[in-house]
Amino acid sequence: MLESELPFAYAGGSALNAVASWKGAAFAISLKVEVKVVEGKRIDNKLLRSVYEVFKEQVCDPGEVTFVVKSEVPPAGGLKSSSAVANAATLALFERCGMRPSPYYALKLSVEAAKRAGVTVTGAFDDAAASMLGGLVITDNKEMVVEERRPLEGLRAIVLPRGGRGLSYGEVAERLRLLKREFLKVYEMLKAGDLYGAMTLNGFLVAGALGYPQGPVLDALRAGALAASVSGNGPSYVALADRDKVEDVYEALSKHGRPVVAEVVNSPAYLP
Ligand SMILES: Nc1ncnc2c1ncn2[C@@H]1O[C@H](COP(=O)(O)OP(=O)(O)O)[C@@H](O)[C@H]1O
Ligand SMILES: O=C(O)C1=C[C@@H](OP(=O)(O)O)[C@@H](O)[C@H](O)C1
C-alpha cells in the first residue's frame, strides 16, 4: 500500500458504464495513484502532457517539470487509472504552484486533460469524480455534473485487476452503444436506490457486449457478494461485499486470477 505524503488520487470501480448513455456511476477504492512533480524537460506520456498543458494554460506556469507516477492499479484495465493519474498530476501541479484548489475545479481540469489526450470516450467524468471526491457518484458526463454523491459505509471492494484491454475505444463505444436502452435501465435502477442490482446488471451488459467471461461475476455472487461487475471497459472486475463475506468472495475470485481486497473510500483525494 502506498503510504507517502505525495499528491494522490484513488482508483475506483464501476456501477454504471457511461459510454453508451453518458450517465455513469463509480466509487473510489483504497488503491492509489501517487504523482510527484520533479524538475525535467520531457513529458513522454500523452495524458500527463495534456495535464501539464491544460494546467499551464488555465492556472499557472509550473516551469520545466516532469512527473513520476506510482500506481497500485494496472493501466487500461477499467480501474480508473487514467482518471487517478490525471487527478493526482493536477493536484501535484497545484501544490507546485502553492495553490489550494476546490476539488471540483481540479476535477474539471483533469477531465479536460483526459479528453484532450484522447484516453476516454465520454470524458469519464464519473470515474474522475469518484477518484477525486470519494464515495459513490452518479454523474452526467455530457453536462459534467455530479447528480448524486453518497458514502458507501462498511463495504469492501474485492478487485480482480487485469490490464491491457485489447479493444480500441472505437470498438468499445460501438459495442456498448448497441445496449444504450439497457444501460439507461441501469441508470433508472441506480436513481431508484438499487445500487447492487444496477451494478450487477451493468456487469452482465458490459461482459456481454465486450466479450468478457461472466464467471467472475457469478462466482462472486455465489460467494455472497452484494454486487459484482466488470469495472469500466474491463477487463478488470470488482465486487462489493460486507466484511463477513470478504474471504469467501476473495476465494471465489481467486479461481480467475489474483484478487485484491480494498476499502471503499468515502473521503476526497489528497488536496494541497
Ligand atoms: N500509471 C500510469 N502512468 C501513466 N499514464 C497512465 C497510467 N495509467 C494509465 N495511464 C494513461 O491512461 C490510459 C489508460 O486509460 P483507460 O483505458 O481509460 O484505462 P483505465 O480504465 O485504467 O482508466 C493509458 O493509455 C495512459 O495514457
Ligand atoms: O471512456 C469513458 O468515457 C469511460 C470509460 C469507462 O471507464 P474505464 O476508463 O475505467 O474503462 C467507463 O466506465 C466510464 O463510465 C466512461
TrEMBL record:
It is found in: Cytoplasm. Keywords: Amino-acid biosynthesis, Aromatic amino acid biosynthesis, ATP-binding, Cytoplasm, Kinase, Nucleotide-binding, Transferase. Residues 198-257 form the GHMP kinase C-terminal domain. It catalyses: shikimate + ATP = 3-phosphoshikimate + ADP + H(+). Pathway: Metabolic intermediate biosynthesis; chorismate biosynthesis; chorismate from D-erythrose 4-phosphate and phosphoenolpyruvate: step 5/7. InterPro entries: GHMP_kinase_C_dom (IPR013750), GHMP_kinase_C_sf (IPR036554), GHMP_kinase_N_dom (IPR006204), Ribosomal_Su5_D2-typ_SF (IPR020568), Ribsml_uS5_D2-typ_fold_subgr (IPR014721), SK_arc (IPR010189). Signal peptide: none annotated. GO terms for molecular function: ATP binding; shikimate kinase activity. GO terms for biological process: amino acid biosynthetic process; aromatic amino acid family biosynthetic process; chorismate biosynthetic process. Gene3D superfamilies: 3.30.230.10, GHMP kinase, C-terminal domain (3.30.70.890). Its EC number is 2.7.1.71. GO terms for cellular component: cytoplasm. It is an enzyme of class 2 (transferase). ATP binds at residues 74-84. The keyword Kinase applies. Residues 48-135 form the GHMP kinase N-terminal domain. Belongs to the GHMP kinase family. Archaeal shikimate kinase subfamily. This is Shikimate kinase. The gene is aroK.
